[in-house]
Sequence to fold (78 residues):
Amino acid sequence: MNGETISLDIDQLYQHYGKALEKDHYGKYVAIAADGRVIVSKDDIEVVSRAINEFGSGNFVLCRVGYRYVNKIRVARC
Fold:
């Protein structure tokens, strides 16, 4: 991680990398990095935690597979 964040287009990333997940992962959470790497799980906190570690904070989008938006995100207390 270099500490920098990048501008990401959630709709474009979902169309390119997330849409294909709908058949097998509908309703799960997905973090998508700008280069197309994905992390998928039914646990939103697991996805966010892994994405921060692997992609860097602010360098991914979080979506729910098959949904237009995520309506609730749980906050992990450290």
